[in-house]
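Blinded run. Sample ID left blank on purpose so nobody reads anything into the name before looking at the predicted structure. Input follows.
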Amino acid sequence: MSLALVSHPDYNSGSRSLNNHPLPGAIGARPIVGRPDGARREHNGMAVTVPNARANEGLRPIDVARDVPQIVDLLKLVFGTALELDDSQLLGDDVGIQISNMFYRMNPATSRLANGFVWVADGRIVGNVTLLSTKAWDRYLVANVAVHPTYRRQGIARTMMEAVTTHVRARGGRDILLQVVKDNFSAIDLHRSLGYIRVGDMSTWHTSASRLRRLEAAGNDMAVDIRPLPGNRWRDAYALDTACVPADLNWPEPLRSDAYRQALWQRLGDMINSRMLETWVTTGASERLTGLMSLSGQWGRSHMVVLRVHPDYAGQLERPLLAKAIRRLQQLSRRNVRIDHPDEDTVTNSLLAEANFAVQRTLTHMRLDLSR
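Blinded prediction complete.
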């Protein structure tokens, strides 16, 4: 799930500074930079007393009523637009500075930032960890672990993550999952030292409609029979998918058991909401599903591709299935195309590169088991 969080209207993109945040509750006023000695400062004719914040520094839970603007800017600084919070752009950039704090408090997306912890130093938020609940009552996600570059290597990330573990354990949680960029070795080492184990790596591949390249048939590809998934075999499609990709590699939730079901009411809902889902399969002996390709999309978003091949048929079905997907994509509305796929599948990775896809990022999924 990707999020493109845009910068706060008063964010100083040139200096990449966190000093230009509005003070908590300063609705209707432009940002005022506080002085640590508590001195008063004039701005636009308004006298504001800035209290000494040092007594309240260190770790504390997020206060959504005042923290969100600073958290957003910290995440923007640390991650850019590669933030894991939701699958759409939730915080727009068309909100004037006069109502910025009110907007962040009232926007529904703010609730996704409400759980977790911040670290305060020198009167500002310099660390944040966001904790998300899931549909399973005992399963939690760590969406972002961010520390301002100036304050790194001081144990802030470790302390925040330990607070997350304590919090989830107190709530009876059994699993905490997170994602970290594959080559961020220091972060991976930190999480391992806290008991997290690696589940696997998922790469996000992307291409534009204009760059998408057809795959040429090879060998006996023409003999592969690819048919639409029969309506009564959605359970078989789910079984094939979950046999190929572990549940914890699906983010943020495991694959729904009815993900490939296309009942009449679902088709009507897709039509009303400008969504589409197509699933194509190959079969082997006794009509067992051996391969699967699905296309999904929604107005205004990229087309999504899923490719699954049963381990017994690895290396045999990937090319014809992906070739079929590309032919269908070129018949649909011209949009960008995305596929999230296990990084260890070198066969599919090679085909995606041949079709002019490029890797946007590869994330290592890690899991902490609290039930032991």
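Unblinding after everyone has recorded impressions. The helical segments are 64-79, 100-106, 156-170, 185-193, 234-244, 264-272, 318-329, 346-354.
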